[in-house]
Amino acid sequence: MRLQQPELLQQEESKVKMIASAEVLLVFLAIISVGANLRAPLTSVGPLVGNIRASLGISSFAAGFLTTLPLLAFAAVSPFAPKLSRRFGMQTVLFGASVLITAGVFLRMVSHVGPLFAGTLLIGLGIAFGNVLIPGLIKSSFPHHIGLMTGIYAVSMNVCAAIASGLSVPVAGRLGWNGSLGYWGFISLVAILVLLPQVKLRRSVSAGRAAVQKGANMWKSKLAWCITVFMGLQSLIFYTTVAWLPEIMTERGITVSAAGWMLSIMQFALIPFTFIIPIIAGKMKSQIPLVILTGALFIGGTLGILFGSTSLMVVWAILIGIGGGTAFSLAMMFFSLRTRSSQEASELSGMAQSFGYLLAAAGPALFGVLHDATNSWTLPLLLLLGVSVAILLAGLVSGRNVQIR
Q1: How many CA atoms lie within 13 A of 151 on its CB side?
Q2: Are the C-beta atoms of 46 and 67 separated by less than 8 Å?
Q3: What number of other Cβ atoms are within 10 A of residue 178's Cβ?
């Protein structure tokens, strides 16, 4: 019996290690699968707007609202995500978010205006929870690999977003616009299946521990507000350039087809940097050098479009794309690096993304109004230049090696 006891202990230890490894693997898969669904259901809509309008007879304003509605949902729901997470657990809320996304995607397949907008709203609500909680989940589950996991999460999100944009029209040729919007529902089902066992494994002690660690008041912190401004302004630049860059370039003498490719190149240029920058940032005590690089990329790209040669438009688009990828990655890292717990990371993420998506929703409309008022893109681009300088200033505070207290 004495000889068998060490063997039994070893077996028990092996079982515990296997269970722990399985849980870590499930969280890893959850981050990837949830991330894959946080942009694709939205980016798949843009190329199909013409088909949707022709089929349902909706106005241009209503079609544009298909993009604005999720952003407003992000802004409205984001502050409440940490509270639900604290009460029910991150994985449970992410599971519910994946259910909302899946239901919304399949609801949009119904060829009527009501289900189209109702499904879009459900998708926006689900994505809002995922946006806010994933940084906290990364901080709690991979505290020693925050940069790497943030990079993997960002790449999963952006690659699937780009693929969704590219496949929308070809799939619509076979399945119709509603079938093209619906196929992403099967991808979100994967997230549900991955998260389901984690909901059952959630420990009540983790919720209690998060409540104890809660302390910093984000809304009264100068650092939190600087990170919020940084997040909001980079969102404004991204959504504004996605909305208006092709039009700006065609007015500068670029063909419509080439301008469309410029936008694609800009979005693909940011993908590798959303992986590389978090890893680099995670190894640095201060991220100020990366903030300066981000500001330089945005300022250089904007000045190039405003005053540079049209033959170099692809260069200016790539500079803005890299700047966007770097800024987004830094914002995600600030949520983890500037907080002391996963719950604080989620609360900062909720605050920053709520304000950020309000700015993102207002940016394209403001640019359009300024263009209509001046019949030129000069003033809007000067505003974009000012936003780039503001990002640099907010980032210089956000990048310091201090935590919110």
Answers
A1: 15
A2: yes
A3: 21
Q: Where are the alpha helices (DSSP H) in 183-312?
A: 184-201, 204-213, 222-251, 256-282, 288-307
Structure tokens at 201: 């494994």
Mind listing the pLDDT tens digit for each residue in 163-205? Answer: 887 788 888 888 888 888 888 788 889 999 999 888 876 644 3
- DSSP-H helix ranges across 108-145: 113-141
* Per-residue 3-state assignment (H helix, E strand, C coil) for 146-171: HHHHHHHHHHHHHHHHHHHHHHHHHH
Scanning the structure block, which residue is given the tokens 């039009």? Answer: 247
Q: Please give the full DSSP string across 25-85, using - where no structure is assigned.
A: HHHHHHHHHHHHTSSHHHHTTGGGHHHHHHHH---HHHHHHHHHHHHHHHHHHGGGHHHHH
CA distances from 330 to 42, 228, 266, 333, 384 (A): 23, 12, 18, 5, 19
pTM of the complete model beyond 0.70: yes
Between the two ends of the chain, the Cα-to-Cα distance in Å is 55
